[in-house]
Amino acid sequence: MSNTQSSSQRLRLHTETEGESIRVRGQVQGVGFRPTVWRLARAAGLAGDVCNDGAGVLIRLWGTSAEIDAFCHALMIECPPLGRIDGIERRACEGAAPETFSIVESRAGLVRTGVVADAATCARCAAEIADPGDRRYRYPFTNCTHCGPRLSIVRAIPYDRANTSMAAFELCPACAAEYADPADRRFHAQPNACPVCGPRVWLVDGAGSDLATAAPAASDDAPGDAIEAASRLLERGAIVAIKGIGGFHLACDATNPEAVAALRERKRRAAKPFALMARDMDVVRAVCALSPAEAELLSSTVAPIVLLEPGPAGAAETARAGSPESSNSPASPASPASPTSPTSPAAGMRAPLPIAAAVAPGQSALGFMLPYSPLHRLLLRDWDRPLVMTSANLSDEPQCIDNADALTRLAGIADAWLLHDREIVNRVDDSVARVIQGRARWLRRARGAAPTPLTLPAGFLAAPRVLALGGELKNSLCLLSEGQATLSQHLGDLEEARTAREFERTVELYQALFEHQPEIVAVDAHPDYRSSALGRRLAAETGARLVEVQHHAAHLGAVLADAEWPLDAGPVIGVIFDGLGYGADRTIWGGEFLLGDYRHWQRLGHLRPFSLPGGERAIREPWRCLYAQLEHSLGWAHCVERWRDLEPLRALRERPIALLAEMIQKGVNAPRTTSVGRLFDAVAAALGICVDGIAYEAQAAIELETLARRALGEGGYAFALDQRAAPWQLDPTPMWSALLDDLAAHVPAAAIAARFHVGLAEAIAALAAGVARRQGVETAALSGGVFQNRTLFEATLKALGERGLKVLTHTRVPANDGGLALGQAVLAAVAPRA
């Protein structure tokens, strides 16, 4: 569309026209909203103007009432892909109508600051890089207002090119013309670039030598450039470090067992699953079953890693390897799905291309994502099988983001490095989600999702400004103001020194980007968390009020806010199950039933406490949890007398259990806990899963669930409900008796695992419903990392629903500690002064 109009197209001014001022609130800045308004207004023949200001976008329109109604309707329908309209307010506007509609520059100091999330390549940019006649053909940094890097490249406010890593690249005349034209979809697209003026990509080995000419062109229309050369190296079994949007990945052919095994060995990642990237949905469908909701999530602007179950092709290959063949029976823990390659109508059915077993050992689900940048699209252009695309780091270190750092830290891991010269300013890991009950459930909220603000429930519009600093693991921070919560990207575990330093830098960055000066600083009540220590220091330095929030109360607050439970809606029964959290009684909690809302809470139930002999070692070595559970529930002597010949007990007798017994008896290095996460570890160890140790957090529980899903439909083990005193206790003693009897009777391990999951869900519902009846409450809420277990989550939802309870769950933030800062923020915002 041209900026000028012919005389026949000039705007019509009628005597019956009226002026309206239209306020649009939501995510409407930095997303191409003003050009959309400009286009719609001019197409409708309306006069006026549009500008950004401190409250969102302000539109002034002159036209008939019907025309303005139609305009507002069109605006709701045609909101830009990265935008979100939370509300439109209309009122009369005085003054004479201008002759045209224009975009007005906002006055300095009035524009709301902040940035939006990085967004996956849009369809139009994807078409350009695939079109030999387009000037951006095969250009790996193509983007527009609707897609491309945002958070990953910003340094400061305001969000314009000068304050991003794109400042190093001066726009060429063609790109500058796009940037200045409101009719162009690259109007004010800060990362705009082309091959003439933008970043470049190259391929090197560990010594820095150029490898781009090492591979021939794949076809006549694809020059043998760096990306093509990297693709050919991957085809030959190499491991390539790839610089992406928010960090480096390590890639290899997912169907090459030797390459995947080499990557595991070099990366020192013994068991944690690798993510996969597939060229398109057809490649994904050749490996996994894919629901419409999962397909929509994969292809969204977030483009997260989505956990998927093997499809018919994968199940067929697994059956040939000797595993049970059933849509509800995933591959054995040692052998994930073995898919076939996509079927081409022209080529017919190809030979099977099995996913290497080492991609996701001990799991049936595979984590898939689609290419979300032009560079990834070009790399996978001719791949009809997936690539491993895992974070580029050693063990649990943060992902590399800098070229020099990647060449140093990944030496000995990567065979080649695909580099570019657009600096990654802020590390942004891939988001991870799975679809349960038809809705996306976030396991990690990062690239593509953060820092998109969340609208808070009714009652929080006038809440004070809060900075909440999250927990020690899966850390993210949260800013609360003006009825919205801005949750940062996943930052990781603060036990790692590099992550702890980045956490402090990110706190400063977010406060600057969103011009947020907190009145309250909220922290976890744990005395030794690094996040809490920083919060106490910031409160002392700034004079902000410090509010300490109990860990599981924060989980309750998070699910209430996530589910948009109004501030004054009253209490719910919160079922909060996780690995650990510092309890109000200074013990370790993790299996809690709380009655509460944002302002008040009390503990009305929990898992029966048991000891963790060895403290942190018990978290890493599930056999210790098994011994402690048997000792507390049944008594070790009784277990030996009744089930002496069972393998789990024989194995325990070969370990230093006398020392553990003394630790428990004397209470030395054997803290008491109600952790359901550790109960899962104990049951897993009884079935021979991760007995000696875990290689990553929740490994034992994940592999136990994988086993359980092979025998869905089993009945559940009984738990006892002790109501003799408050708080009520969920006692696993009868479960352990039945489980050991089943082992003695040679009941399949999958059936035992399933019975544990179903029995626990029924026990949760029984206790929650009992408390709800006594308290006159009709709603329950589920939070905590244990409820990322799909089997337990679905069974619990069903059991609670059968007892007449409405259930609140997470859909916008993770149930794990990644959502903890949101809960801290909302609880601190309404906390009374001490």
Distance between the termini: 61 Å
Q: For the record, what CATH class of the largest domain applies? A: Alpha Beta
Per CATH, the architecture of the largest domain is 2-Layer Sandwich
**Which percent band covers the strand fraction?**
15-25%
> Mind summarizing the main beta sheet?
10 strands, mixed
How many extended strands? 30
Number of helical runs? 25
What is the CA-atom radius of gyration, in angstroms?
28 Å
Oligomer: single chain
Spatial ordering of strands, largest sheet: 6-13-7-8-12-9-11-10-14-15
Helical fraction equals 25-40%
The CATH topology name of the largest domain reads Nucleotidyltransferase, domain 5
Overall geometry: globular
Q: How many separate domains make up the residues?
A: 4
Mean pLDDT, to the nearest integer, reads 90
- How would you name the CATH homologous superfamily of the largest domain? ATPase, nucleotide binding domain
The secondary structure category is: alpha/beta
